[in-house]
Amino acid sequence: MYATMLRIRRAEERARELYAAGRIPGFIHLSIGQEAVAAGVCAPLQRDDYLLSTHRGHGHLIAKGGSLRGFMAELYGKATGCCKGKGGSMHIADASVGYLGANGVLTSGCVLAPGVGQSIQMRGTDQVAVTIFGDGAANRGPFHEGVNLAALWKVPVVFVCENNFWASTTAHDLSTAGGSIAARAAGYGIPGATVDGNDALAVYLAMESAVARARAGEGPSLIEARTVRFMGHFEGDPQGYRSRGEVEGGRQRDPIARLRAHLEEAKLLDAAHAARVAAAVEAEVQDAVDFAESSPLPAPEDALQDLFVHYPWSD
User: What does pTM read for this prediction?
Assistant: First the structure.
């Protein structure tokens, strides 16, 4: 999980630099500061488990096992990207690792996940579907519709609220009645848990329990991971709506430094090992940037490829 978090952090820091330099088109939403949620959620998952994400999904893709080359090339809009350059940052996906996609439509994963869970149930596999959404999304109707259906159908789904206490520019206290999103699980008769989202081990343990419950056919769970995003809602956001103290407080609880301290205390990591991990990650990120820079753009005639599916039974 430590290497995964470092990989996410460095990949997004490079993406930020490249975006500022005009190398990456479109719009990007960074998850710097929230790496412990991505790493902790994905660590108990198998490659063929499914993950649905939000518009802030870079870290989720990387933690699920997506390649950095495919990730970076997709940000560049290149043909070698994991969506052939057609998805970009906000709609990045990689079905080869079960990552069904980031999504610009907030809360969409909450209503898609029960359908994915029902597919798993009908096929009789032991897979699990996970959907990650923000605290703002938890206040929209589709959240309640999705959790209700998942609980009713008892499908293998884990709902994970990545609560960074800002719904775009609206504070959690001004938009969330009752304060606790995890407490809403009780209304649907499923387990709910609140964890420190800056503690990767706490997120992992909560997920391990929820995933085991889902694989055992006992139905969905809801986890609220409370964290801090270091950057603005989008890259370039001046953040006039919140204090610098809040961000600084989050940086003092930096999830990567926190896990490193824990590993060092447990004698599982030392300075030399940490340096080797950092160097390997740096080389991997640079390789991804070089790959993206040297890759071709999609051909104009490819714009209509991959848009339609042919179902034999419709003939």
Answer: 0.95
Separation between Cα atoms, residue 69 and residue 296, nearest integer Å: 13
Residue 51 identity (one-letter amino acid): L
Question: What are 23's two structure tokens?
Answer: 């190398």
Q: Which amino acid is at 207?
A: M
Distance separating the N- and C-terminal Cα atoms of the chain: 48
pLDDT per position as a tens digit, 75-99: 999 999 999 999 999 999 999 999 9
Q: For the chain, what is the mean pLDDT?
A: 95
In terms of Cβ atoms closer than 10 Å to its own Cβ (0-12, 13-18, 19+), residue 33 is buried
What whole-number distance in Å separates Cα of residue 299 and Cα of residue 135?
39
Q: Which residues pair with 166 in a beta bridge?
A: 171
Q: What angle do CA 162, 4, 253 make, to 5 degrees?
A: 55
Between 286 and 104, residue with greater pLDDT: 286
Task: Please give the backbone phi and psi of residue 157, each rounded to the nearest 5 degrees, phi first.
Answer: -125, 140
Strands 50-52 and 129-134: parallel
Angle at CA of residue 48, ends 47 and 54, nearest 5°: 85
The answer to whether 290 and 23 are in contact (CB under 8 A) is: no
Which of 286, 313, 307 has its CA nearest to residue 11? 286
